[in-house]
Amino acid sequence: MSTPHTDILKPKQYGPRVLQLREVVSQPVVAAFCAGGVAGAVSRTVVSPLERLKILFQIQSAGREEYKMSVGKGLMKMWKDEGWRGFMRGNGTNCIRIVPYSAVQFGSYNLYKKLFEPSPGAELTSISRLVCGGTAGITSVIFTYPLDIVRTRLSIQSASFVTLKHPTGKKLPGMWATMVTMYKTEGGFFALYRGILPTVAGVAPYVGLNFMTYELVRKYFTPEGDKNPNALRKLAAGAISGAFAQSCTYPFDVLRRRFQINTMSGMGYQYKSIFDAIRVIITQEGIKGLYKGLIPNLLKVAPSMASSWLSYEMTRDFLLSLRSETDIIEDVL
């Protein structure tokens, strides 16, 4: 005799293709990949105005005054100059970039974790988490870097920098047009990977520290006897891990942005190497030059990483629950 609960779960409700898809997306690495993409899009859209303001702060060299102001005034200036579109400028490209970037990062992290497990299901050490996270960060950068450099260009090309000349009344180029122009005029394929060395140097420790810290804090926030902390504690763990990792690796982010626009005319600098950039920045702008934009960055990190980790875990858990109907019925019975 069937029960209402088991009737709902009968396999005949779904066709073979649907069941096959459910089996695929419920695999741990695939679920992490898909959930990572969702997490990236959600987190970047939430903090898009602060993300763009951070970039505008970062790319200013010594003597530039356009965005030498507080975070509040910077946001007001962005709104006054460009309106709502100014807040979201470059976010479409950023989401196009961050979805595969975040998907590859979370998916590869889960894959590397399996490789580092001393035995199936065994807990990793903090060092192993750090290494897995760092390797996942490098993997995601290599796959998506051209979209990142184009996003930086889009973020600044409409800003009111006096020395950047924009044709009056002419529509600014979009993502694809910017990428094609860079390819044709700035050195071909390698132009799309300009600044990747400081990016990798910063991303590897950042992602490693982020994953390691999150899992440690998450475990600390999990009540004894439970497997998961509640949503609020997950948000707190994400905010803490993101702020800690960003603070430790922030100078690499500044170097990345500077090198991404190193060939643009009117920006006031042409660095020859990473060490030359560090020397020039410290000489002209002091140590604080390596931390330009840190305040809006920290303001965005908390909601960004909190929303990222929460949306990741919620999406991943949902996908993992899509097991085969037979397994679910067996569990129920």
UniProtKB/TrEMBL annotation:
<protein>
    <recommendedName>
        <fullName>Mitochondrial thiamine pyrophosphate carrier 1</fullName>
    </recommendedName>
</protein>
<dbReference type="InterPro" id="IPR023395">
    <property type="entry name" value="MCP_dom_sf"/>
</dbReference>
<dbReference type="GO" id="GO:0046872">
    <property type="term" value="F:metal ion binding"/>
</dbReference>
<feature type="repeat" description="Solcar">
    <location>
        <begin position="124"/>
        <end position="220"/>
    </location>
</feature>
<keyword id="KW-0472">Membrane</keyword>
<keyword id="KW-0812">Transmembrane</keyword>
<feature type="repeat" description="Solcar">
    <location>
        <begin position="27"/>
        <end position="115"/>
    </location>
</feature>
<dbReference type="Pfam" id="PF00153">
    <property type="entry name" value="Mito_carr"/>
</dbReference>
<keyword id="KW-0813">Transport</keyword>
<keyword id="KW-0496">Mitochondrion</keyword>
<dbReference type="InterPro" id="IPR002067">
    <property type="entry name" value="MCP"/>
</dbReference>
<keyword id="KW-0677">Repeat</keyword>
<comment type="similarity">
    <text>Belongs to the mitochondrial carrier (TC 2.A.29) family.</text>
</comment>
<dbReference type="GO" id="GO:0055085">
    <property type="term" value="P:transmembrane transport"/>
</dbReference>
<feature type="repeat" description="Solcar">
    <location>
        <begin position="229"/>
        <end position="318"/>
    </location>
</feature>
<keyword id="KW-1133">Transmembrane helix</keyword>
<dbReference type="InterPro" id="IPR018108">
    <property type="entry name" value="MCP_transmembrane"/>
</dbReference>
<keyword id="KW-0999">Mitochondrion inner membrane</keyword>
<comment type="function">
    <text>Mitochondrial transporter that mediates uptake of thiamine pyrophosphate (ThPP) into mitochondria.</text>
</comment>
<dbReference type="GO" id="GO:0005743">
    <property type="term" value="C:mitochondrial inner membrane"/>
</dbReference>
<keyword id="KW-0479">Metal-binding</keyword>
<keyword id="KW-0106">Calcium</keyword>
